[in-house]
Structure formats: C-alpha cells, structure tokens
TrEMBL record:
InterPro entries xrefs: DUF4438_C, DUF4438_N, TM_1086_sf, TM_1086_SG_dom
Family matches, as Pfam families: DUF4438, DUF4438_C
All copies of domain DUF4438, residue ranges: 29-154, 160-277
Species per Swiss-Prot/TrEMBL record: Streptosporangium carneum
Lineage: Bacteria, Bacillati, Actinomycetota, Actinomycetes, Streptosporangiales
Protein name from the UniProt record: DUF4438 domain-containing protein
Signal peptide: none
Amino acid sequence: MRVRTNADRLVTQILTGEVWPPLANRNGYHVDADGHPFLLPGMGGVTLGVHCGDPATGYAADHLEPGLSIRHREAGANMALQFLACVGNTVRTASGAEGFVIGQHAYVLADFPEETLAEVTVGDPVTVVARGQGLRLADHPDLVVKNCDPGLIERMPGGTRADGRLEVHVAATAPAEAVGAGVGMASEFANTDLMGAYAGQSPDLSLGLEGLRIGDFVALEDTDHRFGRGHRAGYVTIGVISTGHCMLYGHGPGPSSLISGPADAFHIVHDSDANLGGIR
C-alpha cells in the first residue's frame, strides 16, 4: 500500500505462548439457531487442512479456528499476547518453522504450511514477533489502524489517492445487519462474527457472503472499530476473515479489525484476489 506511516517508530517485542488444547465440559452439546443439538470440533488445538484462501464455511465444525490456536497459560501474559500480536506478524515453532498471525479469536491464530502443522502438537511452545500496535497512517488522521503488521500494510494493494482518500481492496462488503457476536468488545481482542454467510440459506437469511474465504479482506459497513466495536452510520471497518464455520445463532466467520474510520475517508475497490494468503 502506497502510504506514509510511522513504522520506523514502532517497537518489536518477542511474545511467547503455546498451542492450546480444544476444551469442552461434561455436557458436550450446544444448540444451533433452530434448536438442534450438535457436538463438533472447532476452537483450540491444531487444525489441519484449512488455510488462507480456503472457504470459510461449509465444514462440520463450530467456531472453526484454522492452523494453530495459541495462548499463554498466565492470564496477564495471555492478554498481552491478544492485544499485541498483529495480523501478519511472524510466528515461530520450537523447531524454527515459520508461519504468520491471521487474527485473534479466543486465541491468537496462526497459519503454517500443512507439512509444518502435521508436526506440531498441543503444548508446543511458539514465539510471536509482535509489531504493529501504534501504527498510524500519516496522511489519514481520521483512520485508526488496529492489529496490523506494518509490513502487511506495505503489501496491501491500494494507498493514498490524489483525492486524499485511502484506497483499500476487499473481497467482499458486509452490511451492518451481518454483524453478530463481538459487538461491544475491544477491537484488539477476538473478532466480529458475520451472519448470513452460509450456502443454502433461504433468501431472507442470505446476505451475499457465501463465498467468504479464510484470509479475505472485507469492508464492514456502518461499523466503528476505532475504540471498541459498535454500529455507527457512515463509518467503515476493514477486517480480515480469521475464523470459519459457526453453528451458534448470531455467530459466523469472523474478521479481525484492521482499519476503521469515516466511510468517506476510504475508496473501496472490490477485488476477488484480496486475501491475506496472497500478499503475506
């Protein structure tokens, strides 16, 4: 992205965590939007076979987390991992294999090549090279950047236009009514779930998001994620899809927040190739 930033003033910190196991309780089952019980894999552990560019939905899963689900066992250190890890940051396993952060959920999520994931197990330590919180766009004072490695900003298509707006390429635009779970949370924590994104839904439920992929950049209409997450008419938030299929009502594939501000400060370009996997 052709844009001036304060990247040379950012601090890099080395954070640690471990691959966290999937968790359950003795009741096991949850209930979907139509009252049907289900018991499916999704959050935690090592998830094989789902990477940036793959479909976000259509799996027998609930709150699907691609790749590695990472957290720290000490509560304060875990919140620092959540708040400071940024999309695009390098993640290293103990063997030296490298992947990258794709977003936050209950865990920090990292994509790796399939052959690397096959060699990782629950409890393995990982290192995150955290850099990006505090990033600013010098020529766009009304826009707030969250959770974004400065190197990712440099590789994203678009940039500052002659008319002063920020050009951003997205694979999809989500209307405000698609926004579900995640409203009211800090925009550096977890992500926002999108409803109406599943193939085969009745026309009154479809919101045109059935083609979402893991890693897609999306524009969330009438949402303000500058200092939290909420509805604000005339604002836009750019996010990246970091989680997949959900069964609970009000949940769905979730974008982590990247850039937020007034809609008229953006020039949105719809681009089917706008995916994290293609530029990281």
